[in-house]
Amino acid sequence: MDTTMKETRTPEASRKTLTRLVLAGIFAAITYVVFTFLSIPVPLPSGKVSVHLGNAFVALGALLLGGVYGGIGGAIGLTIGDLLDPVYIVEAPATFIIKLALGLIVGLVAHKIGHINTETNQKKVLGWTIAAVIAGMVFNTIADPGIRYFYKLLILGKPAAEVTFAINFVVTLVNSVISTFVTVILYQALRKPLRSIGLYD
User: Fold this and answer.
1) Poorest-confidence range of 103-107, 138-142, 172-176?
2) Cα(186)–Cα(47) distance, rounded to whole angstroms?
3) Which residue range(s) make up the domain with 148?
4) Of the ranges 43-47, 102-106, 129-133, 188-192, which one carries the lowest mean pLDDT score?
5) 24 near 12, Cβ under 8 Å?
6) How many helices and strands (H and E) does the chain possess?
7) 9 located within any domain
8) Chain-wide mean pLDDT for the chain?
């Protein structure tokens, strides 16, 4: 009996896994394009930072696909963007870790605590969506400039990190605030269509 149940569930589970993998790849591509081609660079003494919506798509992926798939997809997209830019290439490992953590936090709050996939009360869904995105963006606002500062200062030996920290923090804060609004709006718009094709249980 247990074997039969496993056999009947396997195709459905495989389909959902494949769907999430494909969508994670799509989110990686979108995140890369948004970061690379739709960002506003801010020059710094030792490089640059950018105002962009890449973080919004990391969080959106986590809301739609879960923290693991969404976080990995978004993190890969932004990391590729760093690897292909001579200015950002040295920060690519830090980017992957920070953005994966961003996705995992959003996914944890949205799915493990708020259960937005199965919640039917739209006000609760909206509330948990906002809470999840804010949690992720607060982490990002603190961790992104902080980790990059120590990464440059200790690992890469760039004293200029002290000069760029304040600017990096302000730009990251602006990114996070804008990304919070964009993510919530996009999720509310996409939740029903994606649920209709069986992405959610």
Assistant:
1) 172-176
2) 32
3) 16-196
4) 43-47
5) no
6) 6, 2
7) no
8) 85
Query: Could you give the CA distance from residue 23 to residue 10 in angstroms, rounded to a whole number?
Result: 20
Q: What is the pLDDT of residues 67-90, one digit of tens each?
A: 999 999 999 999 999 999 888 888
Domains held by the chain: number: 1
**Which of 102, 70, 111, 109 minimizes the C-alpha distance to 175?**
102
Percent of the chain scoring above 90 in pLDDT = 54
Residue type, 162: E
7 within some domain? no
CATH number at residue 87: 1.10.1760.20
pLDDT at 3: 45
Burial of 43 (0-12, 13-18, 19+ CB in 10 A): exposed
CA-angle at 62, arms to 175 and 28, nearest 5°: 75
Beta carbons within 8 Å of 35's beta carbon, 6+ residues apart: 50, 52, 54, 77, 78, 81
pTM: 0.86
Q: Could you tell me if residue 86 is inside a domain?
A: yes
